[in-house]
Amino acid sequence: MGRSARILGLLRPYSLLFAVNMVTTVVASVLDGATFVLLIPVLRTLFGLQALPATGGSVVETVLGKVLGPFFAAGNTVGAVGSVAIILLVTLVVKNAALYAAAMSSVAIEEGVVRDLRVRLFRHLQTLPLGFFQRTRGGQLLARVVFDTDQVKTAVTAALASFLRNVSLIVVYLAILLGLSWRLTLIALVLAPVLVVIIRPVVARVRRRSRAQADDRGELTSLVSEMVASVKLVRAYVAEEFEVARFRRLADLYRTRVFGTQAASTLTSPISEIFAGVVLVLLLLFGISQLRPEVFIAFIVVALRLMSPVKAVAQYPTIMAGAVAAADRVFEVLDLPPDEGDAPGALPATFRDRIEYRGVSFSYDGGPPVLQEVSFDACRGQVVAIVGPSGAGKTTLLDLLPRFYEPTAGAILIDGVPISRFQRASLRGLMGIVSQETILLNDTVLANIAYGRGDFTLAQVEAAAGVANAHDFISQLPHGYDTLLGERGTRLSGGERQRIAIARALLRDPPILILDEATSALDMESERLVQEAMDRLMAHRTTFVIAHRLATVQHASLILVVAEGRLVERGTHSTLYASGGLYRRLYDMQFRT
Ligand SMILES: Nc1ncnc2c1ncn2[C@@H]1O[C@H](COP(=O)(O)OP(=O)(O)OP(=O)(O)O)[C@@H](O)[C@H]1O
Ligand SMILES: [Mg+2]
Is 381 left (phi over 0), alpha (psi -120 to 50) or beta? Predict the structure, then answer.
């Protein structure tokens, strides 16, 4: 499907509004033409002629005679001109009402199309693999969802409101001109294709540049959003001027880019106007001797009126070029295959007593292997601790369980069923996940704990927070559970955030827990509070915990030691410590500090 066809396809849900738009636009154009034709009897009266010519005039005049004849039949010319003036006024009012309706219906369509496209894009983002978000700059996505969709509107406007309006104006004006003098009109028509030939290279140039311009705008957005996200780093390293210089370079590049595009696209307007001027001069030269003055004046007025829609239509290809480039950026994302969908026949996930990793290997996006041949079993009610040096692959190992990523080899089974056969949503529903970095939303404490679900009562949330050792500090916040947590929850300390995350997991009461302990050191008191909360969370569940704290590890039913993506040791604290391997070394190192 061509891109333009695809853009027009977005209009489908709006066919009724579109019909309204078309009808009102055509009505407005016809009435607009009519107001100029109505000038003829007025001009004739002005020149002291009979208001309506006797038979033998142009087609337009004949029609005019038929319509207005009854008014002038009585012979009272002044009164008849008055009637014409009233008709003129009524025409004007109706025309403007139609114009308003046309404008509003096109706004309704445009904004509807943009909303639909935005929601579609946002929804599609939910289905894309996590790897996509790591490859793509957040600001570029922001630009696609917010700006590019908005620019697609320009294409819709161009296709719709103004294209339709201008084309119908051109048709009406041409019809009138043909009716007034077909010979003169033909001169203009014969010359029209010349304009197309002149403008074509300009359009090609704009088309080439528009995509780069849209990409640069995305880069600009990225830089702003990244600076905002890392403002503390910028301040800490006194990198303000560095950031400003980087931004200035990019802003300057963008300016140059836009200038280049505009230098081409702005040319279409003067080119078409000068062209129309030449045509008009030719018409004057030929017409002045051929037509009666009042017809000639009407002809010239209408021909002048014709200029602006011609100019507008001549600009469409360049306007469309920008919109098509933006649309491409939107469609590119929409065309990425969704990853998160469930295969047909996927089962609802259940968990009774066993989770197995069988020869699991993994690498990110075709990179070097991060996990190799990892196999182990976990039984219901066990605490499985995973320890190992930083970068060993611990977080990655547990990211495979909720299927954030798929193993490149091997399989993970729950009660003997490969998890790839489960519906993702129900699989994740079995798990409570407390990740290494707590993600808090820009919302209330209550909404953060009950995240994504409206069916928990305040009492339930408070109970979960109580078990998570979070109730006390939440109660002391200015608005308690209704306190807004700022972007990224900056108002809370590390330990407080972790306890919010624990409350979030507790509230859902999942049978499987995945805990990625934060590596950031907490003070003794909050460490104790967090540990206590963790212990309560783990009770009666199957827990996988990436442990940095000794207390968690010592009571684990199974300890897995991971190094460079391989499972190098396994056992309990006492057996591993006794065997004197990597675990012993890690343990001794921590114990000493
Ligand atoms: N999204 C990603 N894309 C590509 N490589 C990644 C990604 N996430 C992690 N890695 C790489 O995979 C390896 C394992 O990372 P992982 O986060 O699993 O380590 P970890 O054992 O959890 O370390 P830590 O104890 O510091 O949290 C590292 O070499 C890391 O650089
Ligand atoms: Mg980690």
Answer: left
Average pLDDT, the chain: 86
pLDDT of 555-592, one tens digit each?
A: 788 999 999 999 998 988 889 888 888 888 888 887 76
Q: Which pair of structure tokens corresponds to residue 289?
A: 């001797």
364 lines ligand 1 (CB under 6 A): yes
The residues spanned by each domain of the chain are: 3-334
Q: How many angstroms separate the alpha carbon of residue 517 from the centre of ligand 2?
A: 8
Cα–Cα distance measured from residue 273 to residue 299, given in angstroms and rounded to the nearest whole number: 18
> Is domain 3-334 classified as CATH 2.40.50.320?
no
**Residue of 396, 433, 515 to mutate, ligand 1, most atoms within 8 A of C-beta:** 396
Question: So what's the pLDDT on residue 50?
Answer: 74
Would you state the structure tokens that stand for residue 253, as one six-digit string? 């590049």
Q: Minimal CA–CA distance to 121: which of 102, 143, 139?
A: 143
Is the Cβ atom of 370 under 6 angstroms away from ligand 1? Answer: yes
Model confidence pLDDT, tens digit, residues 465-500: 888 888 888 988 888 888 888 765 557 888 888 888
Please choose from 395, 399, 567 the residue to mutate so as to test ligand 1's pocket, defined by most ligand atoms within 8 A of CB.
395
Question: 31-40 burial, b if ≥16 CB within 10 A, otherwise e?
Answer: bbbbebbbbb
